Every structure is written in C-alpha cells, then in structure tokens.
Amino acid sequence: MFVRHLLCLMKVRYIIFSFILILALHNSSFAQNLSAQILAAPEDSLSHYIEKSKNLIQAGIIAIPTSDIASCGLSCYQRGEIKSARDFFKIAKNEFTNINDSIEIGRMQSNIAVTYELEGKYDLAVENYHQALDIFIKMKDNKSESKVYNNLGVVFQEINEKDKALKYHKLALNSKQKSRDTLGIASSYNNLGVIYEENFEKPDSALYFYQKSLDIYRMFDMDSFEAQLLSNIASIYIQTNRIPEAIEILEDAAKQAEKTDNKLLKTRIYKNAALAYLKTENLVEAESFIQKGIAISKAQNLRQNHIEILDLKAELQEKNHAYEACIATLHERTQLKDSLQNAEMNEAISKQEVIFGTKQKEHQIILAEQSLMFSEFELKRQKDLLILAIFSFVLTSLIVLLLVYRSRLKAKNRQIALENKMLRSQMNPHFMFNALGAIQNYIIQHNSMDSMVYLLDFSKLMRNILDASRAEEITIEKETEILTSYLKLQQLRFSNKFDYQITIDEQIDIENTSLPPMILQPFLENAIEHGMRKLPEDKQGLIQLSITKTNDGIKLQVSDNGPGFSTKNATEKPENISHAIDITKERIRAINHDKKFKITQHITEKASQGVIVNFEIQILK
Q1: DSSP string over 528-586
Q2: Quick one: pLDDT at residue 24?
Q3: What's the CA gap between 183 and 165, in Å, rounded?
Q4: Are the CB atoms for 540 and 532 separated by under 8 Å?
Q5: Where are the domains of the chain?
C-alpha cells in the first residue's frame, strides 16, 4: 500500500496536479514521531530540526525503517521544504537499492523528479520520471505507471509542449479509468481542464473538467484539493470577467487552505486574488496579496510562481505611476524567466525523450524475443517464419521512424532559423540605437516624467518582442499592443513626422482570436523607412492599419501615403522590400505548411500615392 498525495504547480494563471508516490507509514513510534514533529515544527526552527534529523540518519546514529525515511520526505514536502524532501527521498532510494526493491526504487525516483519539477529544473525532472517509468513498465506496475504518465504531462504542460502534455494525460486517464482509481481520475480531469484553458483557449470545457474534479474531491471531504479546484475555477471567472464571483470563490478557497498550512496552495490563491483586485482597481488589496505571494515564492524558491507574481507587481506599479520601480521589476522578471527557458535545459529534455524512446524500443524487442522462446515447441517452419516477420517489421519500422524523424528535424531546424532571423530583424540594432537616442534627447529637452513613460514603452516593446518570438501564435489584442508601442517610438524617433491609425472590426473578439506573431511589423517598418522618410518636409505622413472580420478568418491591411512605387522611384523599388519582408514571406510558407492558418498576401500601389499591403488569414484549426 502507498499513500497518494498531490502537489500544485504554477503555469501563468493555472494549476496542475502531480502525484508523489510514497510508502505507507511504518508502525515505528520513533518514525511516526519524527514525521509528526516535522509537520508540527514552528517555522523558525523547522529547517534546523530537519537538518539535524537528516544528519542523524545518514551518520547511522539512529536506525529507522527505509519506509519511514521516505515518510519524513513526504512531511518535508507537505511543509514546502522541497530540497529537504528530495534529500530524504534520495536516502530512501539508496537503501532500497541495497535490498534490490525495484518498485520502491521507482517510487523514490518519481518523488525526486517531483521536487525537481517544483524548482523548475525540468530536464532533471524528465530524466528521473523516465527512469521511474522504465522500472514500472518492466515490473508491470500499472497504477504507478499511470501516475508517472500524469507527472510527465504536467512537465510538458509547464514548458508549453502541449501535444506531449495531452498525450501523457490521456494515457494517465485511460489507465486510471481501467483500474477505477477515483481520486486519480479527479486529478486527470483537472489536468485536462488546465490544457483546455491554457493551450486550446476553451474556458467552458476547462470549467466542465474542473467541476467534475471538484465534485469527486468533495465526496471525500478533501479540503486541500477542494481549495485548489476552487482556485482553478476562480481563474476561469477572472478570464471571463466574472470578477465578483471569482473573489467570492477565492475567499472560500482561502478558508480551506488555512486548514492545511499548504504554502504552495496559499501562494496560488494570493496570486489569483491579487489579479482579481487589480481588475477591480482595488490597488490596496492587490498589493497586500502580491506581497504575501512574493514572500512565500521567494522563500521556497518557486521560480515559475515568482515570475507570475512579478508580472502582477509590475502591473500594479504601472497603475500607481511608479515607472522606475516598474522597469526594475520587469528586469527582475525577465532575468528569472530566461533562467528557466534556456536552450541548454530544452536540449537536455529532448535528449531524455530520445533516451527513453530508445529504452522503450529495446524493451519491446526483449519482450518479442521472450515470446519467441515460448514457441520453441511449435513446428520449426512456423518459428522461422515468425522470426523473419518480426525482423522485417522491426527493420521496416526503424527505417520509417528514422526517415520521419529526419524530416521533422529538418522542418524544426528551418522553423527555428526563420524565427531567429525574424527576431534579429525585429530587434534591429539601428532602430534600437536611434530610439534610445530619441528618448535621450527627449529627457534633455522635456520633463522627466514623460521621458520615463517613453523609456517604459521601450522596455515593454523589447520584452513583448522576445516573448512573441517564442510563441506560435498570439492574440490580436497582444499583437496590436506591440505594434502600438513600436509606432509610438518611431513617431518619437522621426519627431512626429507621421500619424498612425489602428482600427479593429467590432465583430472580432480580440482577446480570444489568435494569429501568428509579428506578421505586420516588417511592413510597418518598410512604410516608415521607405515611405514616411521620403515625404516632403511640408507633408504629414499617415500609416493606417485595419483589422476586419471575414467569413473564415480575418483580413489585415497596412497602407501609407508615401511616394509608393511610382515611375519616379522605380530605381529604388528593389531596395524598398526589406530583408525582414523576405523573411516574412518564408514564414508565411512555413505557416501554411503547418495547416493551422492559411495566409495570402498582396502588395499594391494606391491610385494616388502610397502602398497597400493586404493579408488574408484563414483560421483552419
């Protein structure tokens, strides 16, 4: 028997459950006392008590059963002492290795992975989960196998690999339904709600799964899990602007959380409450919850959670016109986020996926060979035919897999190269230098408060461009926010030589309609550099951007009143199409190949003066 517990992980505004696998408590009175004292120890002496207990066990001064060492790790985990929990699980794993208890080795390996996951060390988490899964598959422990599938789904949800996350969560739910694991089914319902909320932007579907999960936990009077689900539901209400209902639910969730002393859960509720109060402009209450959340996430080294609360802190500072503090907070947030999303970690995770896939194939081959051994009493001809069939199948499968993998790798590398080119073109050093120079002149010639606003706009633009370059698609609301910041800085750079207008069809839901990021920016840059720059001194430039709804998608149009491609400027026409626009054309071909969007582009010259660029985006997904 083993006790099942759940932990909560932060991802933007959502919550995911991971299983921690642990042995039942042993009857040893000393061990029970040790675990109970860890749970009951005051905060100011908790770390000292845990460290002393570990040292006594490792030095062999006290001897307790291995299962009780693991139970101490669980107690540390429940108190939010993640590193100490991992240390106890590692001690227990070594002890189980000495007695060659494979199942318990796998469980401790999975628990170690959970602690790395909480700290945002996803490469180490995936490595340990795969090692645990390899053990459970070989030992045919289906129940533990389903929990590790669940946890892998959590990890890939955290790093925005939504297809892999959905695959593992479906495997977990299917396994739990077969074994009638009611609480495990509740956890999987919650995780499916997270995916529908975050990756597929279907709040109604997410709310449906959250409610199904909540109903199960209420059947078992599980206060902690009920509070977590209430917090999830509040997130949906906040997204759909049902703020009073969200605040009411969060108050109920906070009462339930107080009964558990669960730091992770409290931080989650504090973050949602701060977000709700920000939307109601109750800045005093918002600041109170933000400070509480920062204190816990920083103390427990919950970096992903800390990033989310820093975003809210920056928004609060901006609303309070504390622009210098806002810039400092955004800088802190960017540094912390980059530490989580670095290329080395993603590469390590990919390597672990390949290693695990290879192990699975080896395991399948071993099973096939064992199956052949049981057929030795059959006729020789049938045995030879079976061996030949299996060999041919494996060889053909490997060849097909290698070809598919090579094709996908080429496509992925091409996409990454295009994204890098796009980012370099958008982060144009010439534009950045001139924009900063214009801001510097503005600081010298004008009041410092307005100058600080322009500096904040520049900081936001850089951050938004970096974030957008990592995403496959963004909302129209976010895209127009980025383009507005870009145009404002270009206006400052050219001393308001041109005006701009952005019009959006009222039928378009800008918060829930997505498109590929930064499609229009190169054409706006082209209009400014080759249109507005060449206007006579006495003529005011005008750039117009319109977004309208069509039958099966949206239409984007950029127009200007520059010189266009007239006969007078015919010799300049080849230079007017920037390198960034060529990259955009390559991106459009790649996007159309993915079959999520179908994009067509037309560039025409106005009858009078200027150029019109039209994009028709058909949404296929």
Answers
A1: IIIIITTS-TT--EEEEEEEEE-SSEEEEEEEE-S-TT-GGGGGGHHHHS-HHHHHHHH
A2: 37
A3: 20
A4: no
A5: 16-39+51-139, 221-341, 424-619
Write phi, then psi, for 535 (nearest 5 degrees). -70, 150
| Tokens 């206006």 found at | 491
The angle that helices 448-470 and 429-445 make with each other, rounded to 10 degrees, is 160
Q: Helices 223-239 and 243-258, interaxial angle, to 10°?
A: 160
Alpha carbon distance 520, 387 (integer Å):
58
Enumerate long-range contacts of 245-250, CB under 8 Å, 24 or more apart: 246/272, 246/276, 247/273, 247/276, 247/277, 247/280, 250/276
Q: Distance of CA 311 to CAs 30, 290, 300, 318, Å?
A: 45, 10, 18, 11
Chain mean position to CA 385 = 49
Please state which of the four CATH numbers 1.25.40.10, 1.10.10.10, 3.30.70.270, 1.10.1200.10 is assigned to the domain occupying 221-341: 1.25.40.10
Task: Determine the 3-state secondary structure of 517 from DSSP.
Answer: coil
- At residue 424, the pLDDT reads 44
| pLDDT for 547 beyond 90 | yes
What count of other Cβ atoms lies within 10 Å of the Cβ of residue 518? 25
To the nearest whole percent, how much of the chain has pLDDT over 70? Answer: 79
Please check whether the two domains, 16-39+51-139 and 221-341, share a CATH topology.
Answer: yes
Please write the tens of the pLDDT for every residue from 397-441: 888 888 877 767 666 656 655 555 554 444 455 566 666 766 777
Torsion sign (Cα): 25, 27, 32, 34: negative
**Strand bridging mode 597-605 / 553-560:** unpaired
| C-alpha–C-alpha distance, residues 153 and 147, integer Å | 10
**Separation of alpha carbons 268 and 256, rounded Å:** 13
Please give the CATH number for the structural domain made up of 16-39+51-139.
Answer: 1.25.40.10
Q: Residue 505 in 3-state DSSP?
A: coil
Answer whether 0.70 is exceeded by the pTM.
no
- Cα gap 93→105, rounded to integer Å: 5
Buried/exposed code over 596-620 (b: 16+ C-beta within 10 A; e: otherwise): ebebebeeeeeeeebbebebbbeee
Contact 461, 487 (CB under 8 A): no
Tell the residue number behind the tokens 């207990």, with chain if given.
53
- CA–CA distance, 620 with 595 (Å, rounded to integer): 7
Q: How far apart are CA 109 and CA 87, in angstroms?
A: 12
- CA distances 473 to 191, 468, 512, 515, 621, Å, are 22, 8, 11, 5, 12
State the residue for tokens 């230098």: 433
> Which CATH number does 424-619 carry?
3.30.565.10
